[in-house]
Amino acid sequence: MLSVGIEDEEKWLAEGIAGIQHNAFYMHQAMDANSLREGLKYSAQMLSELRTSKLSPHRYYELYMRAFDELRMLEIFFKDESRHGVTVVDLYELVQHAGNILPRLYLLCTVGSVYMKSKEVPAKEVLKDLVEMCRGVQHPIRGLFLRHYLAQVSRDILLDINSEGEGDADTVMEAVEFVLQNFTEMNKLWVRIQLQGPARLREKQEKERSELRDLVGKNLHVLSQIEGVNLEMYKQTVLPRVLEQVVNCKDELAQYYLMECIIQVFPDEYHLQTLETLLGVCPQLQATVDIRMVLSQLMDRLSNYAVSNADVIPEFLHVEAFAKLSNAIGKVIEAQVDMPIVGAITLYVSLLTFTLRVHPDRLDYVDQILGACVKKLSSQPKIEDARATKQIVMLLSAPLEKYNGIVTALTLSNYPRVMDHLDNATNKVMAMVIIQSIMKNNSCISTADKVDVLFELIKGLIKDLEEASVDELDEEDFKEEQNSVARLLHMLHNDDPGEMLKIICTVKKHILCGGPNRLPFTVPPLIFSALNLIRQLQNQDGDVVGEEQHEVGDEAEEMHATPKKIFQILNQLIEALSSVPAPELALRLYLECAEAANDCDLEPVAYEFFTQAFIIYEEDIADSKAQVTAIHLIIGTLQRMNVFGVENRDTLTHKATGYSAKLLKKPDQCRAVYACSHLFWVDDPEGIKDGERVLLCLKRALRIANAAQQMANVTRGSSGPVTLFVEILNKYLYYFEKGNQQITNAAIQGLIELITTELQTDSPSANPAPAPDAFFTSTLRYIQFQKQKGGVMGERYDSINV
Amino acid sequence: MNYLLGAFKPSCNVSIAFSDGKTRKQVPLKKENGQTVLVPLFQSQENITGKITIDPLQGKKVDHNGVKIELLGQIEMYFDRGNFYDFTSLVRELDVPGEIYERKTYPFEFSTVEMPYETYNGVNVRLRYVLKVTISRGYAGSIVEYQDFVVRNYSPLPSINNGIKMEVGIEDCLHIEFEYNKSKYHLKDVIIGKIYFLLVRIKIKNMDLEIRRRESTGSGANTHVETETLAKYELMDGAPVRGESIPVRLFLSPYELTPTHRNINNKFSVKYYLNLVLVDEEDRRYFKQQEITIYRLQETT
């Protein structure tokens, strides 16, 4: 029957409409002539068109609307007794003489509404009668529309009941009873629309069926509008009855829709007070009903209610909304064994959202939810479902957003346990979310315990998890991740050195598991963080040494922040880098540490760091460019060291000078060597000032520069640039000004002439390098300037001829 | 023979008038020729009084062997046409033989007439009451005039009037329980009831309640039974499910019913039945028939 083509249906609809119009025409004629008998006859004939079984709900509705409009006219006619001369009571009987039930009941409803409005009889009696009589139509679609018509004509009357003041409890009760009954019957009819035929049609039928749902839902809407329905009545009568119907109909579509309807049409306050009843139904629904949507909507509503109206929060506590919701969710999950994990998680997400909005102060609730979630998850193998993991991420992100950071979340014991159930990729995503949240909120993690938990959370980023295949790693992503971790490390801070040390140790413990790929990213920030601590310690109590001695005794029993202790840790950290290997980085870090040790006046420590740096330089830095950089770093650092005794210093400077001279390229050698000169001349009051050795270095640099020049001549046929000479000249000038007695006017004079000669011999060649030329010119100009400036410096410069 | 016809033409007008003809209620009565006329209504034990007026045509006289008026209650079987059976016959002699020259009026009176049966017009049988005025004439043939009237007898409310309740069904197919509030209904009554579906395994399309009239005439081998469906009233549209109960409310007033007549003078009976019919989607009919008694209740005005 339903499988017929659309064209046929259109035809039937057209026929039906034509039939209605035809009979309506005569009906109007009869009404104009005030002929009741004829009017009834034609109206019944008109309504007979609605007896068709051939139309889909959609088209039937169209037909129904036509008839509906006509019935409005008829009602007006009925209302005017002077036109037809029959009392409404008699009319009520008269229309029941019609032989066919459908027209009869439509007419009965029409007259019924007139009857009730006439107030000749208590409305409740008529209502009761009408709703009872409508049982005669058992055909789902026809019945639904008939009852819909009944609901429409009775609506005004129902809503009137109260406003008239005569709404004693009894009358209201009757009205409610009427709506409930009509609702129940309509729902039964709706549920009864059977799905038959092939799957292709089934979908269409399902759609058509769902189009009818509003007819059913309208009743609930009316219920919510009847003023007399107070909380008490809702609790005692309305809700139990509606829910009974919901449960009993055992229909997926209906259950879902009706639950949704209940939640949407009745006031929040009612929901709050009847939470238990409402929730109690959930486990009884069909397994296919999307309960999570239902519950989510409920929780959304309630949380909106709570948010918009802060006064009601105590009420939430009073009714134990959270416990009930949580309980209900548990039961639902328990009852619906087949529910996919994503469903369960979604439920928890909704509950969490609810909790965060309504009870932001109740962290225990949040933890409970996570705990329940863990319980559920642990019964499952690792989650594969992408949607489920997405939900878990949502679950975990929600508290972060709410509490502006991880700090609160870290106190949730179940938080990391939930994360354990994520797959690696998601775990990483989640870890990133956590880090970003920390960054965004600039929140500082200030205890070692929290740090520990935090690292437990983000361990996806900290170390290689089992079964993580390397090939899935994207280089860029990896860098991004590790940089985030690095940034995170700076957020771990406590002003109390002891705690800070603990934090550092904790972090160390974690990052050392990270493997060679991660260490270069994670070690430096930790080191700097530790150095920071050292400096802080130093500022705090100036006399570090004294404290150190004091600390030695109880070092075993507790970690006290002493620079020495920290330096040990630093050493271990940097050593870890050797496994990477990242020699350049390690070298830099050693030097940093050495400098810090210097500041702390810990000569042995500083010496040790330098030793390590030199070892690395010797053993691991083979690239000549890297060597150049490294040697300059070493020199720079060493120059600033003031902690060393003469012997140590000599050893180190000697080494450094030695390395400089052994660089591969001559210019590099030259530059390193003249840089070494600074090792012997520290421009401090107490700094070492060994002018002789400075001169030695510079002379050696000159020799190397010469050699470089010659080499260039030999290999390329032209001497190399004079840059090196100019640079050395500058060094000469520097020491000259600093008052190094070994640097004489004559030496400078000689160098200037040498450069001038070199430039001249160079000039015939095709292209004189402009840069050294300019460099030299400006150097000369500087000398000139100093001479003209006069004063002590001017006098010293006086003898130099340019 | 034409002149003879003229000779037989009634030489006078005879009219019958009831004494309370102006005020007495009149009801329609269908005559043999199909026309409906309004006739006075009586009930048993009433006095039937009136006047007979004989008005000879201008300048004629009427010779007669006597004038009489009869009150007849007749049962007429259509298959035995022309054969009236008079179950009541009352006679009043109005005049001794003589001649009538001018309009003459005779009053008549039948007091507390026993009229146990109601006027009835059925398919095969008719029960009627008639006043018959006969002006007897010798060879010229008597002049006869009829006046029909209708008798209706009212019953008191039955002292016992139990409802009808019954469970019927086809095994494993359909079980219903039906209930009508009474077994005896008056003519303007309403049948209230319920059909309760205990088991439904067939696809029912609709359910009707019919009122059927069974008229049986004659007796023994000559019995004729005629059944008419007077009302067909749809109770339910569509297929019910188990546990559904369908209300019944049928107003009897729109239908042309008569009271139940049981074995009227051993000539005929008229019985009424409620027939509950269920039709399934293959148009198979399932039905159950229950007799109800219909009576005429005195209308209180």
From TrEMBL, chain A:
Membrane topology according to the record: Peripheral membrane protein
UniProt entry tagged with the keyword NADP: no
Protein name per UniProt: Vacuolar protein sorting-associated protein 35
Organism of derivation: Cucumis sativus
Family: Belongs to the VPS35 family.
Protein purpose: Plays a role in vesicular protein sorting.
Pfam families with a match to the protein in the record: Vps35
One term under GO cellular component: retromer, cargo-selective complex
Main location as per UniProt: cytoplasm
Subcellular location: Cytoplasm; Endosome membrane; Golgi apparatus, trans-Golgi network membrane; Prevacuolar compartment membrane
Keywords of this entry: Cytoplasm, Endosome, Golgi apparatus, Membrane, Protein transport, Transport
Record bears the keyword Protein transport: yes
Biological process annotations from GO: intracellular protein transport; retrograde transport, endosome to Golgi
Automatic annotation (TrEMBL), chain B:
SUPFAM superfamilies xref list: E set domains
Compartment list: Cytoplasm; Endosome membrane; Golgi apparatus, trans-Golgi network membrane; Prevacuolar compartment membrane
Annotated keywords: Cytoplasm, Golgi apparatus, Membrane, Protein transport, Transport
Recorded topology in the membrane: Peripheral membrane protein
Chief location: cytoplasm
Biological process, per Gene Ontology: intracellular protein transport; retrograde transport, endosome to Golgi
Hydrolase is among the record's keywords: no
Entry's transmembrane regions: none
GO CC terms of this entry: cytosol; endosome; endosome membrane; Golgi apparatus; retromer complex
A Pfam family reported for this protein in Swiss-Prot or TrEMBL: Vps26
UniProt family annotation: Belongs to the VPS26 family.
Subunit structure: Component of the retromer complex which consists of VPS29 (MAG1), VPS26 (VPS26A or VPS26B), VPS35 (VPS35A or VPS35B or VPS35C), VPS5/17 (SNX1 or SNX2A or SNX2B). Component of a retromer subcomplex consisting of VPS29 (MAG1), VPS26 (VPS26A or VPS26B), VPS35 (VPS35A or VPS35B or VPS35C).
Role, per record: Plays a role in vesicular protein sorting. Component of the membrane-associated retromer complex which is essential in endosome-to-Golgi retrograde transport. The VPS29-VPS26-VPS35 subcomplex may be involved in recycling of specific cargos from endosome to the plasma membrane.
Protein name: Uncharacterized protein
Organism: Cucumis sativus
